[in-house]
Write a sequence for this structure.
């Protein structure tokens, strides 16, 4: 299994617009072979000092894939290329961590 944490920072005030495009694309991603989990997350409210906030212009996409091959196919999927083109001018940066279970 492959885990992915994609940290996305949008240009100021653009997070909701990017999330709207992502939400529209989620059904196609979830239908991909090997997709076990895929969804955006934002800062939880009221957690207190333990939390390091992402901030109002950032979110994290939490993903799980059955293999590196299915993750690679995801990146090449036509709906992902279309999503990328729609949000390109709204995104300031992204950092993607691809992880394997440690146990």
């Amino acid at each position: 299994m492959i885990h992915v944490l994609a940290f996305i920072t949008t240009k100021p005030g653009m997070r909701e617009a990017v999330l709207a495009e992502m939400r529209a694309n989620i059904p196609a991603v979830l239908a991909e072979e090997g997709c076990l989990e895929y969804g955006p997350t934002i800062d939880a409210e009221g957690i207190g000092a333990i939390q390091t906030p992402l901030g109002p212009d950032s979110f994290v996409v939490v993903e799980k894939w059955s293999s590196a091959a299915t993750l690679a196919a995801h990146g090449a999927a036509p709906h992902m290329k279309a999503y990328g083109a729609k949000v390109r001018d709204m995104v300031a940066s992204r950092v993607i961590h691809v992880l394997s279970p440690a146990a």
In short: The chain has one domain: 2-99.
